Amino acid sequence: MTHIHTPQTPQNLLAEVLKGKSEEFQRRVLDFAMSCGLSPDDPLFLVLVATGQLEVMLQDAPETLQLLFAMDNQIGIIANEIQKNLALQCELCAMPQIEKSDYLKQVSIHLAKVLQRYQQGKLKIPEQIIQQIQQLAPASINYLSATEEQKKLNLLKKVLKDCVAELGNELQVAADGPKSALRPDKSIIQYCQAITAYKEVAWLSDKKNIEAFTNRGMKSNGYSPIDLMIQQTNQIFEQNQITARPIEQFRNLYPGVEFNQLHKEKAQEIKSDYNSLIKQRLELESRNKFESGPYIVITSPTSGRKLEITNLVEFAPAKNPDFWIADKLTIRIKERTPSKSMPHSLKATVKFNNVDGQEIDMTIGTVSLKSMQQYDLKPGMSIKQGKVEFHFGISDGMIDALKQQAKEYIESIINSTPQAERLQLAAAIHDVSHTEESQNYSGIKRAGVAFAVFPDKIISQLQQLQFNQMRVIGTQFNEYAFQNFQCERVPIKFEDSVHPRDPTKTARWVILEGKTLGTLDARSPHLLAGCEAIAAITSAPSTSFIITSLKNPDHKLQIDSVNQYAFATRQWFGEQVNITLDVRQTQERKAPTVVAYLDNQILGVVNKQSVNFLQGRLAAIGRQLQGFSFVGMLNNAPVSYADIVIDSSSVKFPEITVGEHENNSAVATVLFFSSSIDSQLQAKTEQVLCNMLRRAVDRAVERGYDTVRFVDVSLHSDKSSQNQRTIEMLATERKNIKVEFKGAASLEDAIALLREPDDIVIGICSPKTIGIIDFASNHRKAIAAYIPETGKFERRNLPSIQPNVVAANNDIERDGSY
């Protein structure tokens, strides 16, 4: 048991700590505590006094010390409340008329609760403000005209302004805190916060969030000038957001620069050493964030394990000077509820004797995150009479020292590398830093060392496009499946569209003469969507052939492993050949191998599925596989990928239009998508979609828009020229509105164009397009999709249709109503 008595009063505690110190030092400590408004039992303050560190800091850095202990400083609290108040005032002026009634009701209900708290004595509010709040009570706002509503909102604005006047005085008092004995009146701050609590200003709490404008836009939920700026900035951010990409895509930054094994080994050593320094610094920064202040290391007398206990000053025992001189402690690990500022799930407790001699459990600190990772710790574990070592916490100076160490390490590498070898070593460092490290590696990481060492070499490589070699995958499933490219130079374009395996994601597609070649491999460099270039395309070597029956074209056999035999380099384009099969039993416990011969030479090995199919057909007529001969048409099987090499000088980057509608004309945007369906329903479905496009123009006119803009988000295989012709015809016919066709775009990019409340997505519902519908719906966009099988519409995020305006099926076909 640890016999440490808890202190009786803060004054006694400070007096105990100052015992034995000079009168001059005691006077300076007390003056300092008074000037900072410190409580006498502030744990960090007591630790610094007891260890002598306060004396050193008072001598060397008094201003820094004073800033450190401005813990009771309420400048930030008051300033934030003033910002919130002003934002609420401003939105009263910019709020749409349609929202004012509901807004006023919400405020009124809230202020009724504020009045109730005032009447209960829980809030101290000046009589002048109370009289104004009473005029905003729920009973006084029922059945108001628009003019009366505006008067009430003006009164609310007057209440908010009066609060700002009071808060301005308190802010000045808070700012003068270190020079004055005055402190802000907490009752004023409290009632001002209570009045504005009817609504949270989202950007106020989100402005310091590192996620804002990094991984997402900033939160906004009002009409203040800052809200309106945030909303416009969010639109730009969402369209141009930079997303993390696998580092392998950037590996080939030094094409043509050769380096040897010695360079590679040196690069690996530099990478390891530099990353180690960065890792140490990041660990210290993390500990400084969640485990600031002094900590103790307790060593188990039985196992020798060292356990770190952190955040000592956050718990009561730290206020006791006897705690800081303990050399042994018996601790027990217990579970705790993690918080945002202290995410530790385990704590250490010690049994103390209080002033009455009773034994109580008290928490001394949290078990460090490092110790939790290092050992398999569980609640209930204990250390008896473990040796205690006290350590100072992480300081900014320690972190700065590691930053300096990393900087000096980089300088030493640069200075020790001959000028002639720097380009090769830079290329080697970049290569090893942009290489996949393991099978389970996600590909998303930073390769800081490649940019820290020899940055001038990196910059020189950026003078022209280096990432010009790419691999296109999935070619066997797309529109050039049966074409064998042999380094032909052709114009290509990069477009974003729905991912072939996940309709909720986008993939970068390579388009050749309007047809899909495939998608870029995740490890290949990616040029921007919309880029055009001349590229040399080379299909992968074929490893399989397809033999098609002359009698029944649906009967096909696949011959694999052809690259290992006599006809490995031969290309086949439907020639008629005579094939003979030979069954070989190579291993007793495995199925026999069926080899295909052509002109007494091995063509390849018959695919297992083809063997099963052929066996079934032959068994039906009493024939055997061995020695079976047949005539068929021979073709190369579609290959799964193609390699492309781009002519860097031919690349045309997409034009980024800024201020497209600078004349402030009202623009409605309509995304549309078509789909291939059953041939019996195709004609009617195409007609309905054309009518829907017409209806979209009528809808834009009805709602007061000057321009309607169409964007095609159909899958590549489903794009229809009929839709474009309909839009072009509408552009010619309609004189009361401008009709634009903006071309095709990826669904992800196109969704960002929907900014107006009347913007909509229309199209055809089918198994292929359900991903488009779900994606648009999940982004809370209005969508109407025609279902050919039922003649009805899938409607999402649209107002419900009243019974008296439901259209019959023939009306839908005629006018495209949705």
Structure description:
This protein is an alpha+beta fold. The chain folds into six domains: 75-199, no CATH class; 247-282 and 399-437 and 445-461, no CATH class; 288-398, no CATH class; 469-539, no CATH class; 545-638, no CATH class; 667-815, Rossmann fold (3-Layer(aba) Sandwich), CATH 3.40.50. The chain contains 24 helices and 24 strands. The chain has a six-stranded antiparallel β-barrel. A six-stranded antiparallel beta barrel has the order 7-10-9-8-11-18. A six-stranded antiparallel beta barrel has the order 12-13-16-15-14-17. Strand 15 and strand 16 form a beta hairpin. The model is unreliable at 1-12, 439-443, 658-663 and 802-815 (pLDDT under 50).
CATH level-two architecture of the largest domain: 3-Layer(aba) Sandwich
Shape: extended
Tally the helices: what do you get?
24
Strand order of the largest sheet: 1-2-5-4-3-6
Uncertain regions spanning at least 5 consecutive residues: 1-12, 439-443, 658-663, 802-815
Instruction: Quickly give the structural class.
Output: alpha+beta
**Count of beta strands:** 24
**Range of helix content:** 25-40%
| Major sheet attributes | 6 strands, antiparallel, barrel
Which strand-content bin applies to the residues? 15-25%
Overall structural domain count: 6
- CATH class descriptor of the largest domain: Alpha Beta
InterPro entries: DUF6753
Pfam family, one: DUF6753
